[in-house]
Amino acid sequence: MDKSIDKAVADLGRDIGDYIKQQRSNAKISLRELSKLAGVSNPYLSQIERGLRKPSAEILQQIAKGLRISAEALYVEAGILQQREGGALADAIAVAPELTERQKQVLLDVYESFRRENAAKQSKSDVDGNEPEE
Fold first, then answer.
1. Using H for helix, E for strand and C for coil, what is the string for 70-98?
2. Number of CB atoms found within 10 A of residue 14's CB
3. Separation of alpha carbons 75 and 84, rounded Å
4. Contact yes or no for 95/70 (Cβ under 8 A)
5. How far is CA 32 from CA 37, 41, 113, in A?
6. DSSP assigned state of 85
7. Mean pLDDT throughout 88-117?
8. Residue ranges of the HTH cro/C1-type domain (predicted)?
9. Which of 33, 51, 55 is nearest to 42 (CA)?
10. What is the H or E stretch that residue 9 is in?
């Protein structure tokens, strides 16, 4: 295998490990606690966080469940999925169990309309050389 590909795969493992460690830290969960919540051995989880192992989609799903974040967010960080238009907010809306499908769609539509409006204002201000309006 090409050395540049090996390095890219290693970097990807390190990136997902750093992301998991950051999320665990934000949730104020110890490595041992996450290991129990996710059903993943403590040594294996430690190796993932240090970038020594690249977890499978199934393991990422278990870790996401333990962290109480969307598995999709971990899949994006791991390079398994591409980030959806709208980013983390759109992801959060999509997985919110307390919302109906109709409510999710309305929220996403409103969000996208604001994004388009702001992009249009930014484009106009770039052309005019003015600051965008609030």
1. CHHHHHHHHCCCCCCCCHHHHHHHHHCCC
2. 16
3. 11
4. yes
5. 9, 9, 43
6. T
7. 85
8. 20-74
9. 33
10. helix 3-26
